[in-house]
Amino acid sequence: MMTSVDTDLIRVLADPLRLRIVTLLAQETLCTTHLIEETGARQTNLSNHLKVLREAGVVETEPCGRFTYYRLRPDVIDALAGQFAGLARTARATSEANLKRSCP
User: Fold this and answer.
1) In principle, which of 5, 57, 60, 95 could form an S-S bond with 83, CB 3.0–4.6 Å?
2) DSSP class of residue 42?
3) Residue 15 gets which letter from DSSP?
């Protein structure tokens, strides 16, 4: 029972600022102005990170007048969590069965 994890998504979430953005968006839908205030990041830098998160499908946008609000897509995080849960099940089964390769 081999389980793989979405390495592209892990790379996207591995950046500390992007992880902070995702953590903030898990709590509420925010616009760029709010995210700048919360993270202290420069607008250009924040916009680049939001673009990466959008392209990875982690966040979605909602236009509201002259502002754009960002919302976390929990299904994407659920899918990643499920992949890690699968790895944990595999590791537990391997450990309990004491599976190991013999050295040549």
Assistant:
1) 5
2) -
3) S
Side-chain half-sphere CA neighbours of 35 within 13 A: 31
Residue showing tokens 């995702």:
22
Distance CA 44, CA 51 (A): 11
Closest by CA position to 53, among listed 81, 84, 27, 32: 32
pTM across the whole model: 0.83
What are the phi and psi torsion angles at 58 (to 5°)? -80, -35
Q: Are 64 and 32 in contact (CB under 8 A)?
A: no
CB 68 within 8 A of CB 34: no
Instruction: Extract the tokens encoding 15.
Output: 């950046």
Assess contact for 5 and 83: CB atoms under 8 A: yes
Residues facing 62 on adjacent strands:
69
Determine contact, residues 70/31, Cβ cutoff 8 Å: yes
